[in-house]
Amino acid sequence: MITTAKRLETVEEYYFSSKLREVRQLQSEGKSIINMGIGSPDLSPSKEVIEAVASAILDENGHGYQSYQGLPELRKGMADFYQNQFGVALNPNNEILPLMGSKEGIMHISLAFLNEGDHVLIPNPGYPTYTSVTNLVGAVPIYYDLKEANAWEPDFEALEKLDLSKVKIMWLGYPHMPTGARGSLALFEKLVAFAKKHNILLVNDNPYSFVLNDNPMSLLQVAGAKEVALELNSLSKTFNMAGWRVGMVLGNAEIIDAVLKVKSNMDSGMYYGIQKGAIAALNCDKSWFEEQNKIYKRRRELTNKLAEKLGCQVYQEGVGLFVWAKLPEGIESAEKFIDEILYEKHIFITPGTIFGSNGEGYIRFSLCVKEEKVQEAIDRF
Fold first, then answer.
1. What is the Cα–Cα distance from 108 to 71, expressed in whole angstroms?
2. Are 161 and 186 in contact (CB under 8 A)?
3. Which CATH number fits domain 47-285: 3.50.50.60, 3.40.80.10, 3.40.640.10, 3.30.420.40?
4. Fewer CB near the last or first residue (10 Å), C or N of the chain?
5. Could you tell me if 315 and 366 are in contact, meaning their C-beta atoms sit under 8 angstroms apart?
6. pLDDT range class, residue 274, cuts 50, 70, 90
7. What whole-number distance in Å separates Cα of residue 377 and Cα of residue 303?
């Protein structure tokens, strides 16, 4: 029997990959499942995006291999987007690298900078992929606490007490997933100073800035951030293009070049038509964000009612694509709680525990569910 690599012993199948099989099984048995677990936008991209990719299909020059760095006009679109939305100036020639979704960027960055045994600071709670990729490359996850009592922000006194001598990368993501905590420029300034002090590569994962958020921010707005920081961003949530797999990593040219060395050995460029669609998306005006947020606001109001129906306390300060809620007192297991709802009411909600131990006692609802379905979920109680 052919044995698998030892690195597979450090990871498990992604939670949603296995849990959705369970959901599909219930559906095959005739159960009407309302899926409030996944952050995959159910809304469509703009008509300009669809028209751009449709037109590109007929371009006779669009079917060959594409540049590893993407079309120059795509990089310029990304640079203009950051300038217009955040006031951040980036050189499109060497400070921006388009990605096939920002998730692959987590692997590329880790392969580019981590040696076996290096330490990585990972938020608890936080995106599970930070941990799995760290394990896959042979580095060591070191978790730092985020707690509601501290507005889901790092405790810098606690961070300074850690042994930071082997830390190479620190992952963060504001607006925060899963809680929706906004963060602030003051927090970003502290993080950049911390990274400079300890010679750490700071990486902000920033795909949720424009969903229900009246103050979008970028880590790169902080003076001197490029010296020690990268930012990942994505068109998945902002422009309803999750399946298109369009993301970007941004930072200084030297760091971006290191990531490119990895990426250029792992794919052969993004499809031309998708790049053309992405360019159209990045040129959307503010009315796009306003219309999307009208929809998400109505969904959030209904989802808050569902959470209250369950006796949960919603984190009202949260922004982004999810509702984070604290379970009623006396509930010992978030996973047991959501499983009972799945099997009794046929509603799938995400347990906070999949994001780390500090997620125990919390659940997360996705806003990627039509209003009538959220109302149906409420009615089932």
1. 20
2. no
3. 3.40.640.10
4. N
5. no
6. very high
7. 9
